[in-house]
Specification:
The protein is an alpha/beta fold and 157 residues long. The chain has a single domain, classed as 2-Layer Sandwich (Nucleotidyltransferase, domain 5), CATH 3.30.420.10. Helices cover 34% and strands 29% of the residues. It has five helices and five strands. A five-stranded mixed β-sheet has the order 3-2-1-4-5. Helix 1 runs parallel beside helix 4. The longest helix has 14 residues. It starts with a strand and ends in a 19-residue tail after the last helix. The model has no long low-confidence stretch (mean pLDDT 94).
Length: 157
Amino acid sequence: MGTKITIYTDGAARGNPGPGGYGVVLMSGDHRKELSRGYKLTTNNRMELLAVIVGLEALKYDGCDVTVYTDSKYVADAIEQKWVFGWEKKNFKKKKNPDLWKRFLSAYRKHNVMFVWVKGHSNIRENEVCDKLAVQASKDPYLLDDEGYIPENPPAI
């Protein structure tokens, strides 16, 4: 049995697409860590998924027993309903965010991960903390480029 880890995640985008960010709270025993980062142009779903990825990639050891709490149906259902594994077999053809789903699966497979969907803005303390971290990160003056984001309607050149 691996180390027990609890991860809360949230993503935000102001405009969708627009400036966005993610927030993550990792907890294990007495240990707690908060992570966040903002991006210039991205989507809410990308930030929701990236939050989970960053949380899993932050774990120091493989084989952890991880419970991820997310308010994203996009993320939770894709894994719990096993859709992502079908997408993977088709190399994510016609699916959004293939770069992040591939990165997610790499991190996911290193651990024993269970997802729990929680209703957003329902006074779940750590989810509220993640929301604040994500929104605050989206307003950071030093936003990064989300290099994997591909606009649906790219501007004509």
